[in-house]
Structures are given as C-alpha cells and as structure tokens.
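Much of what follows relies on a compact textual record of a protein's fold. A complete example follows; check for yourself that the lines match position by position.
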Amino acid sequence: MTGINTLGWIGLGNMGAPLATRLVRAGYDVAVWNRTASKAEPVVSAGASQVSAIRDLGARDVVFSMVSASKDLEHVMLDPEVGLLTGDEVPDVVIDCSTVSVETSRKVREAADARGVRFFSAPVSGNGKVVAAGKLSVVCSGDEETFAMVRPMIEALGRSVTYVGEGEAARLVKVYHNLLLGIYTQALAEILVLGEKGGVKREDIMDFINNSVMGCMFSQYKTPALVNLDFHPTFTPVLLRKDFDLGLTEARAHEVPMPITNLTRDIIESTIGHGHATEDFATMLLVAAANAGIELKSEDADVSDGLDPE
C-alpha cells in the first residue's frame, strides 16, 4: 500500500457522524454507510458520498467503523451476506473506533488477516460535542507499521492519539477508561447530593471542583447535566453497563478484585431500573438523590460545558 486516497465510514450515530465529518473537512475523500440512510445527510452535506451497501466500501483504501456493540461490529464486518470482510473486494485497512470486547476484536482481526486486510483498533473517548470542539482522545493498537500509515487521519479526529501496542491492547485501555468514567460520575453524584442536603448549590460545588486539582474536561462538560439536570443522552447507562460488564469479565479472568467497580455496576443497573435507560448516564445523580430521600430540581444556572466548537 503506497498511498491512502479514499476512506469509508460505517456507522453514523452520535459519534460516527461528527467523526466522519471531521475527516471530510480535513480534505479526505470519504464515502459513508449507515443502516438508517437518512442519518448520513449531515455528513453528505459536508462533502461525503453515500453508498447503499456496506460492501460498496470494499474498494476504499481505508474503512473506519463506529458501532454500538460487539454484535454490531461482527455484523458489519463478518456477516456472510453483507459484511465488509466477506465481500469480493476488501479495503487495505479497517480502523474500528467502537468500544467492543477483546474477543470480538480478536475475531474480526483474524478474519481481516485471512483476507489480507490490516485491522487497527482505535476506540475514542468523548461525545459528539467533544468531537465538534476538537478535543477527542483516541487510543490505538495494532501493527506499528499500520499505525505509521494511518496516524495522520486518526489525528484528524481529535486532539490526542495514544498508541499502546499490538493486538487488542487499545480495547482494554478504553474499557478501563469507562470504568473510571462510571466511578467518577457516581462519586460526583454522591457529593452533590450531600451538598444539596447541606444547603450548598450544585453550581458552586462544581465551580470549585472544575477549578481545582480534581477538575477535568469531563467534570466541566458534565456540569450542565449535573447542575441543570439536562440529561439529553450523550452516553446511556445501558452502554455504560455493557462496558462495566466487559471490564469485570477481564477482572475475573485476571483474578483482580474490584469491589468499587462491582458496586458501581450495580448502581448503573439501578439507574436503568429507575427508568433512565434512554437518558444520559449522568442520571446516576437522580438515583443518588432518591436514595437520600430528596428530589432534585434544576438550578437553571448559566454554566458552561467548556466545549466551544473549533
């Protein structure tokens, strides 16, 4: 493979569409496919072309994928009727940005190897607004030579790219990241509820945290949700539960006790049981409040998420 001229993108959900759009705006020739064809409209308006079948992307040099779960990745890559890697023509490289299990990633990698396709894992940290602000982080693993070839286009997706080695290492690092995501959110929920009962506004607590050593990009961009109870979904508790299950499976395999992680997984399950399955996982705050016997109300505060678009 001497040069990369054409890209494909599979999956145009909350993350896939803005990521594909960034590649278009970086000057790449991008063709896209999505199960619901109408969701491709914003990316096509930005300059991408649209195909009607996954296998239509087989002639592309590099194809990215961004899907919700392991079974979805297996479908778009390995389905004998429609899968990208089971067609007559296959791309040179497949880069998957999804958060999936190590087992699924390995299965797809083996199928790609059998077709002479380089498979590269590149899961991401962030949401659609993070992408728009140019602050996405990517963790990568796979063949180092492949990384050297595809690095410029991965760097076009966001602000940082971390290469962690061969094989499925990136899958593990992304799952570890999401375990921390859930634990940190539960910790914020508990202290905000404690503050509520102690007469301190959530806005003031978050302002102090965001400007302290405990603040981070995540605490800043979750501030509107936690203060004003804006739970428009960026990542649902159902998806977070999936990642906790992946992480705890790894913990059992390596005999690593993770008591806080196990407890947080139960709280995420409770959040789903309380009817918040389709809302943002920051609704963990509402469950913490209910457990303390209070009902929160929006503070209607003028707070920033720190994610001004580029």
